[in-house]
Write a structure and sequence with these properties.
The complex is a heterodimer of chains A (484) and B (236).
Chain A lengths: L15 H34 L9 H15 L1 H19 L11 H57 L3 H16 L4 E5 L9 E7 L4 E6 L6 H66 L6 H32 L8 E3 L1 H12 L5 E4 L7 E3 L1 H17 L7 E7 L3 E8 L30 H11 L3 E6 L5 E8 L10
Parallel strand pairs in A: 5-7
Antiparallel strand pairs in A: 1-3, 2-3, 4-6, 7-8, 8-10, 9-10
Chain B lengths: L11 E5 L3 H13 L3 E5 L2 H10 L4 E5 L1 E2 L2 E2 H11 L4 E5 L4 H9 L4 E4 L4 H15 L7 E4 L2 E4 L4 E4 L2 E3 L3 H12 L5 E2 H8 L8 H15 L9 E4 L3 E4 L5
Parallel strand pairs in B: 1-2, 1-3, 3-6, 6-7
Antiparallel strand pairs in B: 4-5, 8-9, 9-10, 10-11, 12-14, 13-14
Helix pairs in contact in B: 2-3, 6-8
Classes of the chains: A alpha+beta (484), B alpha/beta (236).
Chain lengths: 484, 236
């Protein structure tokens, strides 16, 4: 009990102590009444029989009364009955009657024999009664221990089975209520106990702030509940510790993943910056070689040109991404016709791949930064063209609902594998296995610009295996039409 | 650059890199230095070429579209001691150590200088042929005699402890090439000491105090931070 304090809170039935005392005194009164009654009955029987039998022999009737009281009320009551019986017998039936004197020596001997017999019978009967009572109480204790053990075993399996700590505690509470016959019981981890109405609070573990609340209609008495408090507390201690370790492991794992992701991004940047740089410096060195054909010279200069542009594009993309991640994209919002923006993006791309436009003529205007949106659509179109089979046109479609305007850029390429779809907007993610070309930043930048302008970008799997990106913006309150 | 042109047939180098723009320049540089060059873009292509027409050296990028350069190293080491020079754009020492421990002989970080690339390639290729002048290795005014277990500096014998001599011997046998911490610990102390890099710090400092003119600016025993050490090549 040293570690587990039992706090009694809430309104305990205050009468419990006085009730026990009351019960004891009521028992005493009942005993007295029974003793008197038994003596009276015996006296009545003796009075009825006295004409037929010698008075002293009738003492055996009183012996029956003593036996009955010994069995029912124990040794002390039996002794009282014996003494009372002797006095009554002497007073009422032994000469001289109606006084506590005895005329014949023989009667004295008989009375003494009767008294001794009464005491012996009383003692034997009382001892038997007590043994029976002890056996009964041992059986009761054994049953109580069994109930406690069952409850603890159930609590342990609740801890093993529960997914979360709360689920484990709820399950333990339910089992405690079941076992103790209470309407409800609950276990809570809290530093300050908060019993509800008609609940008793028991502190289970001093250091882990675990409390057991049981409604006060439990059939178990308080001592029984106290007895399970310590082992139950230890079990819950284990559960709490287990959860703490699990949380710690989860945190460590999250930190490790974040670290891995950061390292991967650094590697990607390093790789993507160094590759074009290497191509440029290598080509420059090669140009210095002694034996080199004109054709090779042109090739090398092309490499330097192309890789220089690639590097410049990557640096632009990195700067944009940096801005997006620092929340420093400041869109200059103005009325913006999305069909116009897409058309301009396609024109600037200058690709000879066919682009099909299927846009309604009266798309509502949106409020956005047209320059940033042009970057978005030019990235999307560039991607779509890159992953389209030759002669398979890229399709630009669109439409509006009462609340949004949407533009879709769709290609009929090989599509993005399902397991990669959640990651396509992450920087340096290359879902379609193009390790060489592209910075891996295009879609991350698209999402950054679209979201900075209040829009949404979604990847939708094409119905026939291709890929479709949907960019949508909320419809703003449209401006008044220009005067004619 | 053309001074290293081979005596008989040109040594053949296989360049494995998936960036055609880099390979284009590299081929011209290597050809100009006297090598016959072939190239592969993927791990599969590289392994096929290595099997059908084994080259004299391999120049290998660590990031390939269908796998890692490290895997190519491991595969090659199962059947040959072919010199491998790793080209790595990754600035991460761990990746380099992984490649070296998987069997690569040295590495050059992208972007690299042409002279550095060619010097490293010469050093890794020398191993397979001439180990470097019999039992003696000469670097600057140092002469390391592997058989007699003696080191001379400017003609005078320098006293080294047995451990110090073993360290300098391993570096001399790989001279000009990078030897990883693990490799050094393995050869001098044994495999169970492969993690005890602090041994190296102490002993290398002692060796430098005895061999270097200015131990704080070593000329012979060069540190490759986080990876290992190399003994300067006489040709460097």
């Amino acid at each position: 009990m040293s570690r587990v304090g039992i706090a009694l809170l809430g309104e305990r039935p205050r009468s419990s102590r006085t009730a026990r005392e009351g019960a004891t005194s009521r028992e005493v009164v009942l005993s007295v009444v029974e003793v008197l009654l038994a003596t009276a009955i015996a006296t009545g029987v003796v009075a009825a029989l006295q004409s037929d039998a010698p008075p002293a022999g009738l003492g055996a009737i009183y012996l029956l009364a003593v036996l009955a009281i010994a069995i029912r009320r124990g040794e002390l009551a039996a002794l009282a009955t014996a003494v009372l019986g002797v006095l009554t017998l002497n007073y009422l039936f032994i000469a001289p009657r109606h006084q506590f004197a005895i005329a014949h020596t023989q009667d004295v001997i008989e009375l003494v024999v009767f008294l001794i017999a009464a005491i012996v019978v009383g003692r034997l009967a009382a001892a038997g009664r007590q043994r029976a009572a002890e056996a009964e109480s041992r059986a009761r204790i054994a049953a109580a221990r069994e109930r406690e053990a069952t409850l603890l075993a159930e609590a342990a399996s609740a801890i093993l089975a529960g997914r979360s700590l709360q689920a484990q505690l709820d399950s333990i509470g339910a089992r405690v209520a079941d076992a103790t016959g209470a309407t409800r019981a609950r276990v809570a981890v809290e530093s300050v106990p908060s019993p509800r109405d008609a609940e008793l609070a028991f502190r289970l573990v001093a250091n882990a702030r675990v409390w057991l609340y049981i409604s006060d209609d439990a059939t178990w008495d308080e001592r029984e509940i106290e007895r399970i408090a310590e082992p139950l507390g230890r079990l819950i201690d284990v559960a709490v510790e287990r959860q703490r370790v699990a949380e710690q492991a989860a945190e460590t794992e999250a930190a490790r993943r974040a670290e891995t992701a950061r390292t991967a991004i650094l590697h990607a940047i390093s790789h993507d910056l160094r590759s074009p740089l290497t191509a440029i410096t290598t080509a420059a060195s090669a140009l210095r070689a002694a034996a080199i054909t004109d054709e090779e010279r042109v090739e090398l200069i092309d490499v330097i040109d192309g890789q220089g542009l690639r590097l410049a594009k990557l640096v632009d993309d990195l700067l944009d991404l940096g801005k997006i991640q620092a929340d420093a994209v400041l869109p200059r919002s103005d009325w913006c016709d999305l069909s116009d923006v897409v058309a301009s993006a396609a024109a600037h791309l200058g690709a000879d791949h066919q682009i099909e436009f299927a846009l309604p003529v009266d798309l509502p205007l949106v409020r956005a930064d047209a320059t940033q949106l042009e970057r978005v659509f030019s990235n999307l179109l560039e991607n779509a063209i890159k992953f389209s089979p030759d002669h398979s046109p890229v399709r630009v479609s669109g439409g509006s609902s009462p609340s949004r305007v949407t533009i879709r850029v769709t290609d009929h390429g090989r599509g993005i594998p399902t397991q990669h779809r959640a990651h396509v907007f992450e920087p340096f993610f290359r879902g379609r296995g193009d390790s060489g070309s592209g910075s891996g930043l295009g879609l991350a930048i698209c999402r950054g610009f679209v979201e900075a302008n209040g829009g949404r970008i979604l990847l939708q799997a094409g119905t026939d295996g291709g890929t479709s990106f949907a960019v949508s913006f909320p419809i703003a309150h449209q401006p008044a039409p220009a005067p004619r | 650059m053309s001074a290293t042109a081979p005596r008989n047939a040109a040594p053949r180098v296989l360049v494995v890199d998936d960036e055609p723009q880099i390979v284009r320049g590299l081929k011209i540089i290597l050809r100009d230095a006297g090598y016959a060059v072939e190239s592969a873009e993927t791990k599969a292509q590289a392994l096929a070429l290595l099997g059908s027409r084994p080259p004299d050296a391999l120049v290998l990028d660590l990031v390939l579209p269908d796998g890692e350069g490290v895997e190519v190293c491991q595969e090659v080491r199962r059947f040959s001691g072919l010199p491998i020079l790793v080209l790595s754009a990754i600035g991460d020492e761990r990746e380099k150590v992984r490649a070296l421990d998987a069997g690569a002989d040295d590495y050059v970080t992208k972007p690299f200088g042409t002279d550095e690339l060619l010097a490293r390639l010469r050093a890794v290729m020398r191993r397979s042929g001439d180990p470097g002048g019999g039992s003696q290795v000469t670097v600057g005014d140092l002469v390391i005699d592997v058989l007699d277990r003696r080191v001379l500096r400017g003609g005078e014998e320098v006293h080294l402890t047995p451990i110090e001599f073993d360290l300098i011997r391993v570096l001399a046998q790989h001279r000009g090439r990078l030897v990883t911490h693990r490799q050094l610990l393995n050869e001098v102390w044994g495999p169970e000491y492969a993690q005890e890099t602090h041994y190296l710090r102490v002993h290398v400092a002692h060796i430098r105090a005895k061999l270097e003119l200015d131990p704080s600016r070593p000329q012979y025993l060069i540190t490759e931070p986080g990876v290992g050490y190399r003994l300067r090549d006489s040709g460097d």
